[in-house]
Amino acid sequence: MTGKAIVPLVSVGNGAYRVTFAGRTTTLQNDAEALDMEKLIRVNGFYPFRTEQAEVDDLARDEKLRDQKFLDLMRATLRRWVSIAEERLAGKNIRCFMTPGNDDHLEIDEVLEGSAIVTNPEGKLVRLTDGKTEVEMISCGWSGPTPFDTPRECSEEDLAARIESMASQLRSPETAIFNFHDPPYNSHLDLAPMLDRNLQVQTDGGQTRMVPVGSTSVRAAIERYQPQLGLHGHIHESRGQTKLGRTTCVNPGSEYGEGVLRGAVVDLNGNKLKNVQLVSG
Q1: d(CA 89, CA 108)
Q2: Which residue in 22, 95, 201, 206 has a CA-CA distance of 20 to 30 Å to 81?
Q3: Do 103 and 72 touch, CB atoms closer than 8 A?
C-alpha cells in the first residue's frame, strides 16, 4: 500500500526544479513538467516532494529527520487516497476495505481509522451482507518471515495464532472469505525468484530459479477450515488462481512499478462463489 522512498524536486529558481530519478537528473522547466514528473514518481511507488536544497542537505545528514519525512509523506498520501474513496463512494452504499500488507509501516493504521467509507479489517471478523445473505471475512496483512525484515512479518507460529484467533470465531467457515496477504505455501500463487544470502537472484541456465515462498500457516488454515475464497497478494510474480480442496485462492499479482494496476473481480451469488475474473488496467 505504501511507497518505498522519497524523491525531492529541488527548486532552482524561476519556477524550475531539478530531480534525480531512475538514475537520471532532469531539470523541469515549469509547474506542468513538475506535475508530470510527480505523477511518474508516484506510479513507480515513490513519494515526490518539492523542496529547497537546504532541506535536502539536512535530510542527507540526519537519518531520523529523513525517516520522519518519509512517514509524513506516506501518511499524507494515504489520507489523499482515503479522501478520494470518500468522495467517489459517498452515498453509493459501497464499503471499501483497505488492508495493509507486510511492507506497510504500522504508523499508517491511524489514517485508516475514522472514515465512514474506508475500513481497515486487519485482525477482525467482518460480516458482509446484501440484505438477504451474509458472508464472513477475516483479514491478515502480516506475512511469515522474509529476507527483507519488513514491518509486518512474524514467525509462522505467530501468524498461525493471528489467523486462529479470527477463524475460531467463524459461524460458517465454509462460506467465509480469508483475506490473507500471504498466499498458501506451494500453491503456485507463491512462486518467487530464489535469492542467496546476499539477496542475489539465482538462475539455472540463464533462467530465474523460482521457488515457493508462501505461508505454511495460511495453507494449514485453509485446509482446515475450507473457506469458499482466499484473497492473497504478497508475491507479485504469481498472478493466478488455484484450488485447495474446495477453496478458490486468488493472487492478482502486481506490476505497479510499470504503472499497471492488477486486480480481481469476484462475483458472490449470495453466499456462493459464482465467478473470479483477473483484470488489469
Answers
A1: 21
A2: 22
A3: no
Query: Distance of alpha carbon 153 from its chain centroid, rounded?
Result: 13
Contact call for residues 211 and 264 (beta carbons, < 8 A): no
What does the DSSP assignment read for 2-23? --S-EEEEEEEETTEEEEEETT
Helix (H) or strand (E) holding 171: none
* pLDDT class of 43 with cuts at 50, 70, 90: confident
- Name the grid cell of 244: 485447495
Residue type present at position 128: L
Tell whether the model's pLDDT for residue 88 goes beyond 90. yes
The strand pairing partners of 280, in sequence order, are: 262
Stated pTM of the model: 0.91
3-class DSSP assignment, residue 222: helix
pLDDT of residue 269: 87
Helix, strand or coil, per DSSP, at residue 178: strand
Decide if 13 contacts 53 (C-beta within 8 A). no
Q: Please check whether residue 242 is in contact with residue 196, taking contact to mean a CB–CB distance below 8 angstroms.
A: no
Mean pLDDT of the chain: 95
Asked if residue 3 has pLDDT above 90, the reply is no
The listed CATH number (3.40.50, 3.30.70, 3.30.750, 2.30.130) that belongs to domain 121-280: 3.30.750
Options 3.40.50, 3.90.1680, 3.30.420, 2.150.10; which CATH number does 6-70 get? 3.30.420
